[in-house]
Design brief:
75% helix; mainly alpha
């Protein structure tokens, strides 16, 4: 474990990703305390589409709302959607992957079919289909993006369980009479945490991007909830993207920064937790 920490802090991408991720998460968590936001009152129609200035650092949108505040709270919404959806997909995918890899047989075949069906659809189309059924909402986005994540974790966990089920420590637990549930939860699952943590970190960036994409299509968080994809959609629909480029530039940069932060953090964790890099 100590060697893993050392390798992580020796990784430039890991350190940059960690710093960016911590900064973004802290900003999202502290938003209500540092700047309470009320969508009904945080607007000034006399200051519509003002460029960046000392009063409004990132300018204002078509309703006179401060872009900085909207990006701040939109980041909070997008990160929440990405984190919850990855948590849902990871929980379901890890459970199914452990079952498929350990028990094999018809159960593995059935779960394999489910995985193939989910992978047969492009992720964004599958997410759109789910949100269409559940209705446009932030909760629907979390469920849709989480469903898209499930086959990734099924395959990863299944492959790990297949390689671990014949290892000496698992065979010893079986010989001592340990139940399958105990073997899965106490012996196999802890041995898979390294790759799962790396995948979850990388998936959070992807999930945040997919959530923003659904918001851009009008299927995500509904007004007045601020969301980065919805901000881009409002700017394009209102025709502000060319005449007032700050209305799209800063939300787009926020999305890019979020994805970049989690990708760099995931790269650093992968370098630190890769067994092949251990001395």
């Amino acid at each position: 474990m100590q060697n893993s920490f050392q390798r992580f802090w020796q990784s430039t991408s890991g350190k940059i990703g960690f710093a960016l991720t911590v900064a973004l998460v802290l900003l999202a968590l502290l938003a209500p305390m540092l700047h309470p936001y009320d969508p009904a009152t945080d607007r000034d129609y006399l200051a519509r589409l003002k460029p960046p200035s000392a009063q409004h650092w990132l300018g204002t949108d078509g309703l006179g709302r401060d872009i900085l505040v909207l990006v701040w709270y939109g980041m909070r919404t997008s990160l929440s959607a990405g984190g919850v959806s990855v948590g849902l997909g990871m929980a379901a995918g890890v459970l199914l992957g452990l079952i498929a890899g350990y028990f094999r047989g018809p159960v593995e075949t059935l779960i394999g079919w489910l995985t193939d069906i989910l992978l047969a659809f492009p992720s964004i189309l599958l997410a759109i289909a789910v949100v269409t059924v559940t209705g446009p909402s932030l909760q629907g986005v979390m469920l849709a993006v989480g469903l898209v994540q499930i086959p990734i974790y099924i395959r990863l966990t299944r492959s790990m369980a297949l390689s671990l089920r014949e290892r000496e420590f698992v065979m010893a637990a079986k010989a001592l009479g340990a139940s399958p549930a105990r073997i899965l939860l106490r012996h196999i699952l802890p041995a898979t945490l390294g790759p799962l943590v790396v995948q979850a970190t990388l998936s959070t960036g992807t999930a945040t991007l997919e959530a923003a994409g659904l918001g851009f299509l009008g299927l995500g968080a509904q007004p007045p909830t601020p969301e980065l994809g919805t901000m881009l959609a409002d700017a394009f629909k209102g025709g502000y993207s060319l005449s007032s480029p700050w209305t799209t530039l800063f939300p787009g940069l926020a999305i890019t920064m979020s994805v970049l932060a989690f990708n760099l953090l995931g790269d650093g964790l992968r370098d630190a937790l890769d067994p092949r890099s251990k001395n």
